[in-house]
């Protein structure tokens, strides 16, 4: 962690050509550093907070004008970092923004580390750790639902729930202390054990309910890893192109055209799908195609969800049956493609091998059946409802999910101890451990090393 009085600077917009670039400063010297390079009608040290000013950036050493700018001045504590902040809006482009940043560094600012602006917001108490992580989730959101989920976390939905549960745990621990301080009253310990067991069960239910949101949260945050599999020439690449609405994969009548795995992210009516188009799975003597088939098997094993494509205009083959078998323990949808042609596949035969409600008849050529596919995916993973309530609480962060699991295990150990009539002070250890684990979510009990590691995942300037 840097010293409190360091003033940091960074470019906060993506590198490359654009209409505007923003260079940001934060720290007790932010305004004075910016004022030394700013030439306008007023000194930035004398203007009101939260005002914007027109002028030019000039190199004090040689009076060279670098750019025409608009400068926003914000005084602490009503800023993102709770420090004095400056945001310089200059013309977009790599050269201009970099020259401006280099000038600020020469004038005394230090280059910000990844995520250091958000880190300072956390360290200065403006946001907690879960809210800080929500900032990055908001930046990475790929759908409106993912954005709503991140906004809810940024506004403190998760933090409020975790702090409420931790307060309930503190009240439990206070009751435990009473039993420890007055051991001569046997009825006090018995009453405490009964009370503790009931209270722990109530808290465990709250954690269970929160944990149940993790699957949906993970999908919305990272995307549903979806492998499109099938034997050659059944329409896998055509399906990918149709869902993407662009010609991403080469489609020909030649079996085995797709030799490698193709990955693309799409937004399917609010559901982010990480589509993986695989090489047709079959036995082949072609060395390159063999490599593609091996990668297809690997994609199949790693996928969260399977789209198994069968050719409805041909009878069911041994290879089709093998694919049905190896995907039987996966979440899947069976797509009977080419229904616009004469149907030769025996649908009744397939229905005896798979869940009937997972079979969808489609024609990629005629663009038929895809609405049913989208509806089925939402039923499988979202109960038919994809909308996200911004006021609700969801788990999407892998770190949070792991900590909730650990907290549940600690409470489980406490319940086992009570039922085995273990000494109350030993039960107290597990309850305290749960309280400490939950504190890591908001950053109340987190170590400095973890904080540094988390913020290093952020982009520069955020």
Helical coverage, percent range: 40-55%
Alpha carbon gap, first and last residue: 16 Å
Number of helices: 16
Widest sheet, order of strands: 3-4-5-6-2-1-7
- Round the mean pLDDT to the nearest integer and report it: 83
Strand content: 15-25%
CATH class category of the largest domain: Alpha Beta
CATH-defined architecture of the largest domain: 3-Layer(aba) Sandwich
The sequence of SSEs as H and E is EEHEEEEHEHHHHHHEHEEHEHEHEHHHH
Q: Report Rg.
A: 29 Å
How many strands?
A: 13
Q: Label the structural class.
A: alpha/beta
Output the CATH homologous superfamily of the largest domain.
Answer: P-loop containing nucleotide triphosphate hydrolases
Shape: flat
Query: Stretches where pLDDT falls below 50 for ≥5 residues?
Result: 248-260
User: Can you summarize the main beta sheet?
Assistant: 7 strands, mixed
Descriptive report:
With 462 residues, the chain is an alpha/beta fold. The protein has three domains: 8-127, Gyrase A, domain 2 (2-Layer Sandwich); 135-213 and 394-443, tRNA modification GTPase MnmE domain 2 (Four Helix Bundle (Hemerythrin (Met), subunit A), Up-down Bundle); 224-382, Rossmann fold, CATH 3.40.50. Helices cover 46% and strands 17% of the residues. It has 16 helices and 13 strands. It has helices at residues 30-37, 94-106, 116-123, 129-140, 144-154, 157-181, 186-211, 214-222, 236-244, 287-302, 318-326, 347-351, 370-382, 398-419, 424-442, 448-455; strands spanning 8-11, 20-26, 38-40, 51-59, 64-74, 85-91, 110-111, 224-229, 262-268, 271-277, 305-311, 332-337, 359-361. Strands 3-4-5-6-2-1-7 form a seven-stranded mixed β-sheet. A six-stranded mixed β-sheet has the order 9-10-8-11-12-13, sandwiched between helices. α6 packs antiparallel against α7 (186-211). It starts with 7 loop residues before the first strand and ends in a 7-residue tail after the last helix. Residues 248-260 have low confidence and may be disordered.
């Amino acid at each position: 962690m840097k010293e409190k009085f360091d003033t940091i600077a960074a470019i906060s917009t993506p590198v490359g050509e654009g209409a505007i670039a923003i260079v940001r400063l934060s720290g007790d010297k932010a305004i004075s550093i910016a004022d030394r390079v700013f030439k306008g009608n007023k000194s930035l040290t004398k203007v009101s907070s939260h005002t914007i000013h027109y002028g030019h950036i000039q190199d004090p050493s040689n009076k060279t004008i670098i750019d025409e700018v608009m400068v926003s001045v914000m005084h602490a504590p009503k800023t993102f970092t709770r420090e004095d902040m400056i945001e310089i809006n200059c013309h977009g482009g790599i050269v201009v923004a970099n020259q401006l940043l280099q000038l600020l560094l020469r004038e005394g600012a230090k280059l910000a580390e990844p995520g250091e602006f958000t880190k300072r917001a956390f360290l200065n108490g403006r946001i907690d750790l879960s809210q800080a992580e929500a900032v990055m989730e908001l930046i990475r959101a790929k759908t409106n639902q993912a954005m709503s989920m991140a906004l809810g976390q940024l506004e403190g939905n998760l933090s409020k729930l975790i702090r409420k549960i931790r307060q309930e745990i503190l009240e439990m621990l206070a009751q435990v202390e009473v039993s420890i301080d007055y051991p001569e009253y046997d009825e006090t310990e018995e009453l405490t054990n009964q009370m503790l067991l009931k209270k722990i069960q109530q808290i465990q239910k709250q954690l269970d309910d929160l944990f149940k949101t993790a699957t949906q949260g993970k999908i919305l945050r990272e995307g549903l890893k979806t492998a499109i599999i099938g034997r050659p020439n059944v329409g896998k690449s055509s399906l990918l192109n149709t869902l993407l609405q662009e010609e991403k994969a080469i489609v020909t009548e030649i079996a085995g055209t797709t030799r490698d795995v193709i990955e693309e992210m799409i937004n399917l009516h609010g559901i982010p799908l990480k589509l993986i188009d695989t090489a047709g799975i079959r036995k082949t003597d072609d060395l390159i195609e063999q490599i593609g088939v091996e990668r297809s098997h690997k994609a199949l094993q790693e996928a969260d969800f399977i789209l198994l494509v069968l050719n409805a205009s041909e009878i069911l083959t041994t290879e089709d049956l093998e694919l049905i078998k190896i995907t039987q323990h996966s979440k899947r949808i069976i797509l009977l493609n080419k229904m616009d042609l004469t149907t030769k596949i025996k649908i009744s035969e397939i229905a005896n091998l798979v869940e009937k409600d997972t079979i969808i008849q489609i024609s990629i050529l005629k663009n038929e059946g895809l609405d049913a596919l989208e509806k089925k995916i939402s039923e499988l993973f979202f109960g038919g409802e994809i909308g996200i309530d911004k006021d609700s609480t969801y788990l999407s962060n892998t770190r949070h999910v792991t900590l909730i699991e650990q907290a549940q295990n600690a409470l489980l150990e406490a319940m086992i101890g009570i039922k085995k009539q273990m000494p109350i002070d030993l039960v107290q250890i597990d309850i305290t451990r749960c309280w400490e684990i939950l504190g890591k979510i908001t950053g109340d009990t987190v170590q400095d090393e973890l904080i540094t590691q988390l913020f290093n995942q952020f982009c520069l300037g955020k």
